[in-house]
Write a structure and sequence with these properties.
Length: 205
């Protein structure tokens, strides 16, 4: 057994109800997908252990409620975040139109020291639906928005088919680690051999 330093990275996932925030996280952390829709109430988090640039990282990913009536916690817990993941459904235009609002609300509540440099990432989810034939938002439109918002990285994903999910969250971890100016590090006694991933969850409802 040995003691190793870990960096805790807090990530907030935002977007309209039904875009697939919970499904993306569940696919990423638990490698599971369910067709059934169960609205998130309040906020919940999952954690995943990663090795990034030879650093041990604990990614604490906060899932939030898209439905306004379930947003009981407001935006108070956005504070201290190291990255914000914005999710929309490529098949539903209004879920993209609200991205400006989610972006600005996040900055308002999180109040990072330099809002112009705070890392966001945009995910266009459900690209599997109807083989892309019911798409409402083109990749170009999404990319143009990202460029207009200080070059936010953009990924197209499918939580259902596990398409690009790992790559997207790996990128989240990298930019969160890179941005982190005041590291939350802690020591934990762990076996010398590091498991690929560990997970746990908690609820702040
Ligand atoms: N076809 C398809 N369906 C998806 C995908 N991701 C999520 N879904 C479905 O979309 C519905 C909503 O997914 P959720 O992950 O619960 O959405 P959410 O964004 O967490 O919604 P709230 O908790 O209300 O904010 C569920 O029925 C999922 O099965 C996807 O990539 N493809
Ligand atoms: Mg949810």
């Amino acid at each position: 057994m040995a003691s190793r330093k870990r960096t805790l990275l807090k990530v907030i996932v935002l977007g309209d109800s039904g875009v697939g925030k919970t499904s993306l996280m569940n696919q990423y952390v638990n490698k599971k997908f369910s067709q059934q829709y169960k609205a998130t109430i309040g906020a919940d988090f999952l954690t995943k252990e990663l090795l990034i640039d030879e650093k041990l990282v604990t990614l604490q990913i906060w899932d939030t409620a898209g439905q306004e009536r379930f947003q009981s916690l407001g935006g108070a817990f956005y504070r201290g975040a190291d990255c914000c993941v914005l999710v929309y459904d490529v098949n539903v235009g209004r879920t993209f139109e609200t991205m400006d609002n989610w972006h600005d609300e996040f900055l308002k509540h999180a109040s990072p020291s330099d809002p112009t440099k705070f890392p966001f990432i945009l995910l266009g989810n459900k690209v599997d639906v109807d083989d892309g034939n019911s798409r409402a938002i083109s990749e170009k439109k999404a990319n143009d928005w990202c460029v207009s918002r200080s070059n936010i990285p953009y990924f197209e994903t499918s939580a259902k088919n596990d398409y690009n999910v790992d790559d997207a969250f790996h990128s989240v971890a990298k930019i969160a680690l890179h941005h982190e100016t005041n590291p939350d590090t802690y020591f934990q006694v762990i076996p010398e051999t590091l498991n690929d991933s560990e997970q746990s969850s908690g609820c702040a409802c």
